Amino acid sequence: MLHTPRGGAAGGTATVDSRPMSIGTVLNTLREEFPEVTISKIRFLESEGLIEPQRTPSGYRKFGADDVERLAHVLRMQRDHYLPLKVIKEQLDALEPGDPLPVPAPARPGDAAEAADDGPTAARIGRDELLAAAGIEASELEEWESYGLIVELPDGGYDAGAVVVAGLVGELGRFGIEPRHLRVMRAAADREAGLVDSVVAPLKVHRNPQTRALAQARAKELAGLTVKLHATLVQTALGVRLP
Asked: Is pTM beyond 0.85 here?
C-alpha cells in the first residue's frame, strides 16, 4: 500500500518512503498497479504540470512520496474514471496545501454485475458534457466524428470512453498527428473488437446473468491483452526499446 502523507487513496501501488527517488524508482513503484506506465508517460505528466519534482544541481529529477501519490492518482483517474488530464489538473490545482487527494465514492456491491447486464455503454454523457470534459470545440468534435474516432449513440449521448478518446486525440495532435491520420487506428480497433466479440458472443446471449457478467469480464481481459500486443508490435516495428 502506498504511504499517503496527505491522506489520499492509494489503491494498489507499492509502499514508498520519504527519501527522494529517481524516475526509475518511481516507475518501478507505479508498475505494481499500472504495468503499462513508462518513463515517457511520467515525463509527459510533468510537462503538463501534474507534478513538479525537484531537480538536483546537475538536472536530475528527484521525486518525493507526494509526487508518486499524485502520479498514481492521475493514472487512476484516467483509467477508472475516464477523466482527461485537463480536468484532473483543475481538480488538483483547486486543492489547498495539506488537503487530501479527492477520493471517488467506492462502488456498491453488485454494480459490476449491473453494468455488465447493461453493456459497455451503460455510462453515458451528453454532448455538452463531452465538450466541456475534453476542452474542445463543437467543430473539433464533428471532425473527429467524421473519421469515426468518436461515435454518437442512438440516444444522442456518448459512451464515457469518448472522453478518453478525445484526450488521446488531443495529445497526439500536439505532435502534429491529425485526426484524419488516425482512421487506420479506428479500423484496427474495429477488427480487434470483432475478434474479441467472436470469442465472448456465446456468453453474452446466455440467460444466466452471471454468465453474461462473465462475458463482460472476459471481454475486458481480452481487450487488455490485445492492447498490450498492439502496443508491443508498434514499438517493435519502430525499433523502440521496451522498458
From this structure: no
State the SS3 of 143-179. HHHHCCCCCCCCCCCEECHHHHHHHHHHHHHCCCCCH
Contact 1, 16 (CB under 8 A): no
As a whole number of angstroms, the distance between CA 85 and CA 150 comes to: 18
Neighbours of 108 (CB within 10 A): 8
Which DSSP string do the residues of 39-98 spell out, in sequence order?
HHHHHHHHHTTS---EE-TTS-EEB-HHHHHHHHHHHHHHHHH---HHHHHHHHHTPPTT
Q: For the chain, how big is the Rg over CA atoms in Å?
A: 20
Cα(46)–Cα(146) distance, rounded to whole angstroms? 33
Buried residues in 139-167 as b, exposed as e (16+ CB within 10 A): ebbebbeebebbeeeeeebbbbebbbbbb
Tens digits of residue pLDDT in 73-115: 998 888 887 677 888 888 888 888 777 887 654 444 344 334 3
